[in-house]
Design goal:
Layout: E1 6-10, H1 14-25, E2 29-34, E3 47-48, H2 50-58, H3 62-67, E4 76-81, E5 88-93, E6 107-108, H4 111-123, E7 128-132, E8 136-141, E9 146-150, E10 156-158, E11 160-163, H5 170-174, E12 179-180, E13 186-194, E14 206-212, E15 217-222, E16 228-234, H6 246-257, E17 265-274, E18 277-279, E19 283-284, E20 287-289, E21 295-296, H7 304-323, H8 333-365, H9 369-377, H10 386-390, E22 430-433, E23 436-439, E24 448-452, E25 466-470, H11 480-484, E26 491-494, E27 500-504, H12 511-523
Helix pairs in contact: 1-4, 1-7, 7-8, 8-9
């Protein structure tokens, strides 16, 4: 195996599979090593954000992903009650958002299905390979490569290694990379079971069903909205998986459901620890951390998988450019510059979500139901979450600042104002392209793109890796220049991950030189 051409990815979860797929489609040979015999059979992560859906849309996988998701239009994020069919305590609606900001909606998709979609796509890529039942026992770092020690197999050398081996990442630990976070916030059992509860819920159509009493707290999650469910059970100090045989779990589910006549079949049980943490380093020489190995978040908010997939999207184009020698290796330092801050900010948000849930549960255990109802009515989860989803902007990284200010936001989690400021996600706008209704986002991916205004002069930029789309010529959008903050002769450079790399309000006579300099800065051309 040539270390000059191949990238190793350790871990075949959603973030490892996404990284491999993005690299393969960028023309990079890669191998995924996964110690399990196959993809996940027990769903953990469930939520797919708009931004993550945009990535799947770019890859042509969104429709397939939606086929395995909860039916679109579920009106409530959460319905709190004293049992699934018992006294209601409050509802948290799903905020309605138009297609003004994104061509995609959120999805509620089991991780098992997400991985299946990615694995099927990966199987069609000749440059990608996944090896199940291959455990990486260790890693040896070199100055120009990294050597993976495979349990029961020969050691292999690669130019680059992506560690996507989970929250307990053995590679991260071996490389002595520390983490920051609040520590353990609770031990849980994730119980997947089958029961015909959907038919009893009537207008109680939701994604989450937290069930409270003065004796217990169980958190039901709809998998298909009908008969497939998850239940998260909080473990008391000293309790462990062995204390919960299937019969005991069945009794717990029946009691919390309020539906004693419906049979319950326990399908699988997975213990987990709520211990949010973000790695202190995302890059260690030839090794790059992604997914839970880089940032493990509280599940309250469903942002863990999304943060990991978006980090993989950020990393893959940069790594592909380096392997192809179109960018200098120091561009990989910008992966940490950009994504570590995003992960830390998101962790703070999800931690606050968890604290809200714990506060509600505490009041229920105190039998203070008025306080419970008031806390649910004022839940911070009621908002759109658009700022968290689409508004993450980088303060430094692989872009050229233009000294403009980010739009102010009173509520950064929920408020979102589109901006083409360098370091921000290029805004979505519906456009007409040769008679077809598309999004500006459909112009990105796989290459660097220059979006130009209607009066942009015809200029030879001498950059094979950049493709130009001009308003009025290659697409039609009346609001393009206003939304992107340029004059009619201005231009915006968009990276393969859909983030703005540079912006020129107007293109001056020396624009080719300005453009070449900006591209060199972004791609770290000086250290190639």
């Amino acid at each position: 195996m040539s270390s000059d051409e191949s990238v190793a990815i350790v871990g075949g979860g959603p973030c490892g599979l996404m990284t491999a797929l993005l690299l393969a489609r960028a023309g990079i040979r890669c191998v995924v090593f996964e110690k399990k015999p196959g993809i996940s059979t027990h769903p953990k992560a469930m939520g797919i954000s708009r931004r993550t859906a945009e990535i799947f849309r770019h890859l042509g996988l969104l429709e397939n992903l939606a086929n395995g998701s909860l039916a679109e239009g579920t009106p409530y994020l959460a319905i709190w009650s004293k049992s699934l069919v018992g006294e209601e305590l409050g509802r948290v609606p799903v905020a309605q958002v138009s297609d003004e900001f994104s061509p995609c909606s959120k999805l509620h998709c089991p991780q098992t299905w997400t991985e299946r979609v990615l694995l099927e796509a990966l199987a069609a890529e000749p440059l990608a390979e996944i090896r199940f039942e291959h455990e990486v026992a260790g890693i040896e770092m070199g100055s120009d490569d990294a050597r993976l020690i495979l349990a029961g197999h020969d050691a292999l050398t690669f130019s680059w290694v992506v560690a996507a081996d989970g929250a307990g990442s053995a590679i991260r630990r071996q490389l002595k990379v520390g983490t920051v976070g609040p520590g353990e916030m609770g031990h849980f059992l994730n119980v997947m079971f089958r029961a015909r509860y959907g038919a009893h819920l009537g207008d109680r159509k939701a994604i989450l069903y937290p069930v409270l009493s003065t004796e217990y707290f169980e958190h039901f999650v709809a998998v298909d909205g009908q008969d497939l469910w998850l239940m998260h059970h909080f473990l008391q100090p000293g309790e462990q998986l062995a204390d919960f045989p299937a019969e005991r779990l069945q009794e717990m589910v029946v009691k919390a459901s309020g539906l004693p006549l419906e049979p319950v079949e326990i399908l699988s049980v997975m213990p987990w620890v709520m211990s949010p943490k973000v790695a202190e380093l995302f890059r260690i020489g030839r090794v790059l951390l992604v997914g839970d190995a880089a940032s493990r978040l509280s599940p309250a908010g469903g942002l863990g998988l999304n943060t990991g997939v978006q980090a993989a999207h950020n990393l893959a184009w940069k790594l592909a450019m380096v392997v192809k020698r179109k960018a200098g290796p120091s561009i990989l330092d910008t992966y940490q510059e950009e994504r570590q801050g995003a992960a830390l900010w998101t962790m703070q948000n999800t931690n606050r979500n968890s604290e809200e849930i714990f506060a509600i549960v505490a009041k229920a255990l105190e039998n203070d139901w008025e306080a419970v109802r008031n806390l649910i009515a004022g839940s911070r989860r009621i908002g759109t979450g658009l700022g968290q989803d689409l508004g993450i902007s980088y303060s430094r990284g692989a872009f050229v600042p233009d000294e403009s200010e980010l739009p102010s936001a009173k509520d950064p989690i929920n408020d979102y104002q589109p901006s083409a400021r360098p370091g921000s996600r290029a805004p979505h706008l519906w456009i007409d392209r040769h008679g077809a209704k598309l999004s500006t986002l459909d112009l990105f991916g796989g290459q660097i793109v220059l979006l130009a205004g209607t009066a942009y002069p015809s200029i030879n930029l001498d950059a094979k890796e950049v493709i130009t789309f001009q308003n009025g010529k290659d697409f039609i959008a009346d609001e393009f220049e206003r939304l992107y903050g340029i004059a009619e002769d201005g231009a915006v450079l968009v990276r393969p991950d859909g983030y703005v790399g540079a912006r020129w309000r107007r293109t001056q006579q020396n624009f080719p030189d300005q453009f070449a300099l900006a591209l060199a800065v972004i791609l770290r051309a000086g250290d190639r």
